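User: Last request for today: this protein with zinc ion, please.
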Amino acid sequence: MSSILPPLFKRIIEFFDSFPEIGSRQALRLFFWLIKQDEKTKKKFLENINVTLSEIQFCQNCFFPSINELCNICANSHRRDDIMMIVARETDVLTLESAKVFQGKYFILGGLILPFENKSIIRERLKILESRLSTKQYKEIIIALPYTREALPTIKHLNILVKKFPKLKFTFLARGIPLGGEIEFIDPETIKLSFVERK
Ligand SMILES: [Zn+2]
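Assistant: Here's the final one, the structure of the complex with zinc ion:
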């Protein structure tokens, strides 16, 4: 980072830079945008972050961010409780919902397992998933993970889980999702197809 910037500026820029998918250039832009806003906007920015973040919790059922104990999907009595779709990220839920084909509920892993990382939110959720599979009745569990190299350790882990529950019906979103495909970037029509033709 440029040496003309005072350490105080750098602290804020580095903070923005630590956000996922935000590079150092974008962090700089965000910083320069923020400081140019009027006092009201700056105050609103901080208020929104402060108030909203403190009110957000994770849905007790699927782990989607929610203001209540259950998110809007899980609190919806028209959605089926006996069909579960396992996804990696919150953004996958948004994409899948825009396809309007799935009527069950989700289970969000919170990301992908990184090799050599033993303590993570994902590993914790995988344990919760396992105990849920052994206590609740499911008609079908759909695994909707990205087909990327990064997803391999997570897929491997889920395959072990699948073998532990031979009586449960597991299906995979397969067709239409390209190799190396991230679910969140797939268009709703392709999602629909891969859902209908899951196996
Ligand atoms: Zn939920």
